[in-house]
C-alpha cells in the first residue's frame, strides 16, 4: 500500500496532488483491486493505427517519482476506438487493496485528472473464485458502468457488477448488477415486502404532454417496470356510482364499467386525450404475466374533479376491477411476504371504504395519510411516511434532501428485525417505509417536479453510494444492516439514466448475507 499512482507533473510547475480514490463494495463478494492502468487522451508518438492504443508499463512509486516506460502496441477494441486517439501511459499491479463485502477502502490511487481527460481502468479480483472484472472511470456517460468480466481459465459463471463513479468525491461504489426487469427473482420469498429496498415513482403515469407542474415522469410506466420500479403512485378521478342490486355471481358488463381517469391533482395527466386506469392495469397485468417472480405495489388515491366519493371509488374498484381479476390482486390489509405477493398487484389504499366493501379486502390501509410531513404514520400504523412536498423555493430543496436522508435512516433502523421469521406470530409488523423524493410548487417554475428532481436525485445517489448504512450516517447500524424502504422518485430514466433505481435495488444485496 506504500505507493501512489497518478499522472506525472510537469517539471516546471507541480500542481497540487489530486485526491486519492475511495472504493465502497456494496456487494456480498470479497473483492481485491489488482491492477490500475491510466489512460490519457493525447496522441501517442508510437501509435501505429489512427485509433491504436499503446500500453506502457510504469514503475511509479509516487506522484512526483520518475517513470520507466516499456511501450508496446496494444490492439484496439471497439470501446477503445470510441474513445478516440488515446494511450495507456502507465500500468501498475497492486496487492493489499482488499475490499470486504459492505465495506469501504481508501486507496492510494489518485483519481483521474479531469484537466487532462484521463481515465483509469481498474481491475478487481473476486477472491473466492479468481475471476477478474474491470471498469474504466469516468464512464462514457453520466450513468452506471458495467464491469467487464475476465474469467481466469474457468467455465464457472461469472458475476455481474456495476459501478457508480462520483468524480467530485473521488469515490467509486460497486453494486451487484441486478437484472432490473426481474430483480426480485433472487430474493428469499419468505421476506416481507417491508424488508426490501423498493424503487417507486411519484404520479407514475404522468409522462405525457401536460402542464409542466403536472408532468412528473420522463418515461412510460412499462419502461419504469422494465428498469426496476415496483411501487406505483397513481391518482384517479372517480364518477359517482350506484352499484347494481346484486353483484354476486355475475360478471360485469365491460361496456358498463365506469372509467377512472388518471389525474394529477385537478388536472388530467395528458393534454392529448384522457388516460384511463383500465389501460394502465392492462400494462401491469401483462408485465406480471411475463415476470411472475415480481410484485407491484399500487398506491391509489382519489383526486380530480369527478363527482364520486372515496366510497364510490372503493365500490367501483371492488366490483369492476378487482373482483373480475381476483387472482391478480393482493387486497389483504396485512403486509405480504414476497411469496404471497409474487405475480400480483398489492393494493395500497389511500381512500376510505364503503360499508359494503370489507376491510379484509380493502388492501393495505393508507386512508388517513398525513399531509406534507417529514415523518408521519398513517392511521392504521402500517405505513411510515416522509412526504414533505411543500418546497416553496429552490433554496428549500436542501431541506427536502435532509428529510429524505432521514427517511432512509429510519427505514434502515426499522428493518433491523430482518425477516418475517424473526417477527413473532401476531406481533407487530415491520411497517412499509415510504419515502417521497418528490416536491413541487405550482406557482414557482424553479420548483416544478423536473427542476427539483435534477437537484434531489443526484444528492440521493451520492448518499446511497457513500453514506447509507454506514455508521457515520448517525444510525449506528452496521453497513450490512441497511434497507432503503420504498423510495418514490420523479424523473428517473431521463436520457437512459437509471442510476438512482440501481442504487435502491442494489441495497437488497445485504439480504443475501442472511440466506
From TrEMBL:
It holds the Pfam family PI-PLC-X. GO terms for molecular function: phosphoric diester hydrolase activity. SUPFAM superfamilies: PLC-like phosphodiesterases. GO terms for biological process: lipid metabolic process. It comes from the Eukaryota. Residues 187-350 form the Phosphatidylinositol-specific phospholipase C X domain. Residues 41-87 are annotated as: Disordered. InterPro entries: PI-PLC_domain, PLC-like_Pdiesterase_TIM-brl, PLipase_C_PInositol-sp_X_dom. This is Phosphatidylinositol-specific phospholipase C X domain-containing protein. It comes from Staphylotrichum longicolle.
